[in-house]
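Project standup — Tuesday

K.O.: blocked on the structure for the chain from last sprint. Re-posting the sequence here as requested.
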Amino acid sequence: MTTKPEAPDGGGSDLLPKTLTTLTEGYDLGAFRADVIAGLTVAIVALPLSTAIAIASGVGPERGLYTAIVGGFLVSAFGGSRYQIGGPAGAFIVLVAACVTQIGVAGLVLATFLSGLMLMGLGLARLGSYIRFIPFPVTLGFTAGIGVIIFSSQIKDLLGLQLTGPEPGPLLEKLPALWDARDSFSLAALAVALGTIAVIELTKRYAPRLPSLLLGIVTAAVVVAMTGLPVETIGSRFGELPRSLPVPALPDLSPDLIWAALPWAASFTLLGAIESLLSAMVADGMAGTQHRSNAELVGQGIANMGAALVGGFCVTGTIARTATNVRAGSRGPVSGMLHALFVLGFMVVAAPLAAYIPLPALAGLLAIVAWNMIEREEIAALVRASRAEALVLAVTFAVVVLRDLSEGIVVGFALGGLVFIRRMSEAVALEAEEVPAAAVAAQDEDARARDIVIYRLRGVIFFGAAARLGVALERIASRPRGFVVDLTDVPFVDTSGARMLHALARKMARRGGQLYITGARPEARRVLRAQGLRAPEAIFLPDVATVFARDDRHQTRPPDPNR
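H.V.: unblocked you, prediction finished:
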């Protein structure tokens, strides 16, 4: 498939859904056929994943289907990515399960609705582009941590364990509870899970065009039904699935429930924004397109509110299904909308058959998802490249696994910011410059006797570097009476850097010296003057040579502080 690269959109067009862009470019029967094939392919992948994620999240499998159908349709219809596929995502499993435990399914639905409002607000406020500033080690540690959490949530069904009470959410509490239930281990459950994993992986390797996930689940269901293996199924735990969507209805909007749901809504919003925009960026990299971050957040917000109206839960862009959509030959958002309709068709026609799906098979499927979320090659490359970034990754991973997803993002982002500040401060250079030969000839004297030194600053002069530079410049300024600071190679000066230079100018003035600022760009000059750096404390000149030309014209020297 070939696609035409798209330029980033500006102005009001950054909120325009990609559906309208695709249709206005021209959409013919051939494109529709391609989208039908792509939509069907993605639906076959989404069907088992949606039910598995819903069950792992502590809600009924039907809610995963509602989320995939309504949320998936609205993400494609109103989002800012040409190829994004929305639906329930593995990254939300832990958050959703914890939310259900604390405030119930009604609270989860309300938190999803409120999250939709928040996502729309982020998009309308044009904050989508800022999500991209999250450092790569943070996203890498974050997704790896989610992979570990997802796998740990499936150990119970993988091994067929029977816990005496509710399964704890935190990993450090979950593992002892699972160990206490070791006597209930089921060899049949483990065999079904391993068999499902084997079928999926062998299909991927030897018949990659076949729907490996669906084939693995169907094979497990057939084997269990024919052999009568004693394992739990969707039917034995949840009963028969509904064959239609529920009538849309607003969630419970009681003040107490809203107050309880707000923290969860904020967590859903943060994670959903990151996950969806990462997925859109993956699609851009595969197809050579450019998504609209703000439109994507608005679309995600609409999708979450729509899913909540039918009892669904968190919707976000899903990387695996989006990548499948691109590889299947999608021409645009229509394939995403068709995928949702195909899932609806499967639910209407085959809902009774879903009752035969073994839960260990779904656990095996999610174990593969968890394994694939840990990008082992990327982690190894990052560890080899930078110890500091490896530390950011490790801390993010540890906080996500042992504490909380949102805390992991915040701590990782803060630590990544500190690493960046340290590196930027080390990149700032202070270099001594020779007095221009022309100035020496014009003065007809030894330039050193005039007691003027020149130092060139290179890099961004900001708060991280201001203290170190200030100490170095003050030591130098203790000797000369004329001090030239050349900012030609300084693209930016923040207020901390400006105050550092202002303090230097005052020190020079007290000693009877003169500070010259040369080569400052208009933006830097504006910040310096706003912090009080003006004549006569500091004289702004276009370049170093002008300093000496000025002395020639006026025949002046810096005053002697001893007079």
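K.O.: great, moving the ticket to review. The beta strands are 86-87, 316-317, 429-433, 452-458, 482-489, 514-518, 538-541. The chain is about 65% helix and 5% strand.
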